[in-house]
């Protein structure tokens, strides 16, 4: 909807029988096989969740979007802006952040502050590469979250995968499970069509800042919060 370790393939699938000639008992790939391997590795690097090496660029590349999972990564400006806000809210070393279905944000947070404590809750198991920072999350089953995550997060950022009341209500259950009961901050990134529901279900207000994605979306996206950001994020919309 949203960096760090490169995604390493578990294996490179090829012909079941080796066709590489042997020289001094060492296998040597044919030129065709070598070219295929280089193409495979280049593609993996291109689509992996790794920090860009382009000078001082703050851009972060993620695995390729999977439209079947309703995945749309944030633009660099959006990810940076939201990450800066989250880091501002984390005003103590004990602050923990939960990112629900927004891997782009997780990646930018870790890029901007490697020491920040962030948990990514995501359905796509490609993000298992983040190790203990990753928790499998199916929005249909918010009750299946690990008990150790209950009421553990001062800041929760959520980006529901679908623009429906049913999805928002179930994500709200996960938020209620994760967030600390008092003095906590909630940010929601979702479509404009969810404006009234965000207010009714979660008590959120729209901010002036308008999130953008790397892919062109037909739905206008908004950022909502449960606190007044003041001059940040464009402030609460009047």
UniProtKB/TrEMBL annotation:
GO terms for cellular component: cytoplasm. Residues 7-19 have a biased composition (Polar residues). Keywords: Cytoplasm, Methyltransferase, Transferase. It holds the Pfam family N6-adenineMlase. It comes from the Eukaryota. Transmembrane segments: none annotated. Residues 1-21 are annotated as: Disordered. It is found in: Cytoplasm. GO terms for molecular function: nucleic acid binding; protein-lysine N-methyltransferase activity. This is Protein-lysine N-methyltransferase TanjilG_20425. It comes from Lupinus angustifolius (Narrow-leaved blue lupine).
């Amino acid at each position: 909807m949203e960096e760090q370790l490169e995604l390493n393939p578990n294996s490179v699938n090829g012909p079941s029988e080796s066709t590489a000639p042997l020289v001094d008992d060492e296998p040597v790939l044919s030129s065709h096989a070598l070219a295929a391997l280089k193409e495979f590795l280049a593609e993996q690097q291109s689509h992996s969740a790794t920090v860009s090496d382009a000078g001082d660029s703050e851009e972060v590349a993620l695995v390729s979007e999977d439209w079947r999972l309703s995945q749309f990564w944030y633009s660099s400006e959006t990810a940076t802006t939201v990450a800066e806000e989250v880091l501002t809210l984390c005003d103590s070393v004990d602050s923990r952040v939960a990112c629900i279905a927004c891997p782009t944000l997780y990646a930018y947070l870790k890029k901007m502050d490697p020491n920040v404590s962030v948990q990514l809750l995501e359905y796509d198991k490609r993000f298992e590469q983040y190790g203990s920072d990753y928790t499998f999350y199916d929005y249909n089953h918010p009750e299946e979250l690990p008990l150790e995550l209950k009421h553990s997060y001062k800041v929760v950022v959520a980006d529901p995968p679908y623009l429906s009341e049913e999805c928002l209500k179930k994500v709200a259950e996960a938020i209620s499970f994760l967030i600390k009961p008092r003095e906590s901050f909630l940010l929601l990134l979702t479509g404009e069509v969810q404006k009234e529901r965000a207010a009714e279900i979660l008590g959120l207000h729209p901010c002036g800042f308008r999130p953008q994605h790397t892919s062109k979306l037909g739905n206008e996206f908004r950022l909502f919060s449960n606190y007044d950001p003041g001059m940040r994020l464009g402030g609460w919309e009047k």
